Amino acid sequence: MSKISISSTNAPQVGFSAGTTPPLSQAIVHGDLIFCSGTGPLDPATRTIVSDDLAEQVRQTLTNLVAVVEAAGGTKDSILKCNCYLRDAAQFPEFNKAYREFFADCESFPARTTVNAPPHRAGVLVEVECVAAVVEPK
């Protein structure tokens, strides 16, 4: 069974600054599963952090993640598991509220792990990665 590398222009392209390209794909599809790399609260066009507000960062991060999932043939509702990384554990209640609102229209919430771990980029308060199911093969 082969794997397919996915890239979406509707989510920030990999790379931390001009001229850098980390050794990763936005997602890999293998069989009926989509494995998404971690993404953060960056505007897809400018690759700048959208806000210093956690709730806005959570919404943008999850929007970016869904864009990659959709490019791979999945949907927001086909996300099975999220691993979430918060810069500040004290912000967990605010994170949880924004996360709940984002997935409120889904049949069920994805399985989830949330840990306190400072993201690699200054100003980033949250990063999320996921595994999703393919619903429309590409």
TrEMBL record:
GO cellular-component terms in the record? cytosol
Checking InterPro entries in the record gives: RutC-like_sf, YjgF/YER057c/UK114
Q: Which domain of life is it from?
A: Bacteria
* Gene3D superfamilies assigned to the protein according to its UniProt record, in alphabetical order: RutC-like
- Which GO terms label this protein's molecular function in UniProt? deaminase activity
Q: Please give the family membership noted in the entry.
A: Belongs to the RutC family.
- Identify this protein by name: RidA family protein
Q: Which organism is it from?
A: Actinomadura craniellae
